[in-house]
Structures
1.
Amino acid sequence: MKIQSLRGMPDLFPEDLDRWHVFESKLSKIFHSFNAHEIRTPLLESTELFSRSVGNSSDIVNKELYSFLDRNEESISLRPEGSASVIRAIIQKKQEQEKHKLWYQGPMFRYERPQQGRFRQFHQVGVEYLGFEEGISEYELISMVLQINKLIGISDYKIKINHLGDQLAKEDFCNALVTFLQPHVNELHEKDQARLKSNPLRVLDSKEKSTQALLKEGPQFQDFLSDDSKSFLQNLIDAYSDHCDIQIDQSLVRGLDYYTGIVFEAVSEELGAQDAFLGGGRYDNLSKELGGKDMHAIGFAIGVERIIELLGIEDIKQSLKVGFIIVGEQIDKKTYKIADDLRSANSSIILDTFLNEGSLKSQLRRANKNNCSYVIIVGEEELKNDQVIWKDLVAGGEQELLTSKEAIEKYTNL
Ligand code: HAM
């Protein structure tokens, strides 16, 4: 029987990755301009890291973690997200009192039910600002989100934003919500009943219409927020409402337990049911929860598979491509040296070498199919005179005989 990839863990082929590369190169420019630096943490961490950060009652830890015992009988897990590992790394390096502007990228793992836009291995690019209290850093991150969307050509999106208050406000609201929902527990869908028990705030995220109708009658988050938090949220929205569609969404609590303060998501209708292509917020308590010193923290992560769907196809510009055709069986040591010299002379051009791939005619056909603008042909006769044939595939197939030195010069100036 043939071995298949695991469900929800797709391969990424060159034709998929062309789009990824455009995205990655644009993003690295943005991070550079914000003076954010890359951090790389391991894919595997102790399971406790995630149960103490993302939260035992969250779906991510409860049902979706890839956990197993290692050879030492220790429970380890594939990371479901990046923030917990970044905080762990900073605590381990005893750098909680410094300021950090960090970004990361890589695969994340969640045992979810795969569907369009939802995978078990997916990729995130994340940003974490550490050591910055509530204030300008919220503005800077929303500004970064807008810049990213602009640079990669996404215009049709909405930012949903909410303020979860401090830990106390969050707990007070949570208690009020439970008190309100308890008498209606039998009217709730089975899923929402389970959420009410394990993580009541998640009921706000319910997709059930009847639950949403009931919640309208219940306590509202805004009423538990301090005036400072309310005006901070409103000012933030006012600052960006001319530049994008940014709106308060009181049901936005996010699926990870560590948030307090501002939370946000960017959504696009083009993505269908899994419409969030980015999400984040403030999580000032996490460092303490993980045994570190107090450290302010705020960040977001982009779902790469989802944002790639939104990337304009016209963005993908091919570099100039030149075919390199060797004719004849006899490989003289000089033959390949020419290709080597060409690449050293101009590395921005793609030199598409045809390695023993049939007759001259079929190799030329291949060069046309591969969108080569020119081909350089090295035949046995030409090689004796240190010459090559330069053929222009775009301008009607004209060709000329050049010395290899002339060819290299021409290639350098393409
Ligand atoms: P998250 O909302 O769980 O947040 O994930 C961020 C983004 O990752 C989502 O908006 C979505 O685009 C993508 N994503 C999540 N799960 C999947 C999946 N199964 N398949 C495809 N894409 C997915 C976090 O992970 C937080 N660590 C973000 C953060 C950083 N908060 C503060 N700093």
2.
Amino acid sequence: MKSFSIAVLAGDGIGPEITREAIKVLELIEERNDVKFELLPAAFGACAYFEFGDAFPQSTIDICDRADAILKGPIGLNHEDSKRIPIDKQPERGALLPLRRRYNTYANFRPVSLPKDLAHFSPLKPEVIGEGIDLVMVRELVGGLYFGEKIAGVNEAGLRYVKESLEYDENQIQQILHQAFKLASKRKKVLHNIHKSNVLKSSVLWNEVLGEVAVDYPEVEVIHILVDAAATLLCLNPTQFDVMVMENMFGDILSDQGGGILGSLGLMPSACLGDEKAYYEPSHGSAPDIAGKNIANPYSMIGSVAMMLENSFAMEEEAKNVWTAMQGVFADGYSTADLSKPGSGVQMIGTDEFGDKVVEKLRAMPVVS
Ligand code: NAD
């Protein structure tokens, strides 16, 4: 029997609710496959700060170090509550960026996917969605503005001043581009390169390196698009995209727009892969506005489990089953509160019911070994 340990960082806000549903799915997968998951819960984010004085405490680092993979819920507090934590200890700066840095999880894959029969969830017109949206955003995750040098203080003119640096070296750019080209090779062999080379020198270097890496993938057509234009085209014509690659901050922003064109960030799981370790998380935040109400959509967290099965445990077939089960629940006419308005002809279900229905569907599917 195969055995894997998983650090489970439920996080803040809706994190614990959606993590609970993801664990239901993992337990069923264990039951119906020759596999054992050792779940290792650990505190991470604002909850960890309040308990241990550190958003990424040593006890959690030790658990993540020994785990085969990390399943992470969203972290963070609302704007006002954030002020209860010193700036450098706040969840993103104190936990998320250190997690990414520690395991060098440079390759972030964010599928933006909505099959045709679920197109009614999207705010886009049916004729724009056509046969459905199915693209992957590949985001560089450990470089750029978020990880560059930061200086804050008072400048020579006596004004409050801040300087943040956007840094990349050619190796960092190469490694993410190889990941994107490999994915494009396996899919439609088209790679949209999202950049801002008309303004940013970092994009000029990015594009130069892309030209060199592209030589290894002659089968892949590269299409260059400026990031601002890409934002518009995602709304006007999302089906032209298949694999999109971009630097860290562009990916942060455009992938939230990806959630927007699907109808909710609750449909946005992700995989964050390094060469040695990977972690999996919803692309969205902790949604403090809906926490504790049993209305969060756990699709993003269960989808992150599917990505973990595929990428960390080589369980591709079971991963496909999880996607099919989740989409099947929606296709049966159910909806979570983020995706539909009451009275729109769907049957509204809560966070836990969605998890239960996914489990029920998955249980009914044959196991392919
Ligand atoms: P958010 O992503 O938490 O929420 C934006 C909107 O989407 C909200 O209306 C929310 O209710 C909704 N939403 C998000 N996920 C949902 C789900 N699964 N089901 C239904 N609705 C969902 O963004 P925010 O409100 O700007 O940020 C809240 C906190 O999350 C902040 O502290 C922020 O720093 C943090 N954050 C963390 C991560 C992370 O852990 N990787 C990512 C982004 C933001």
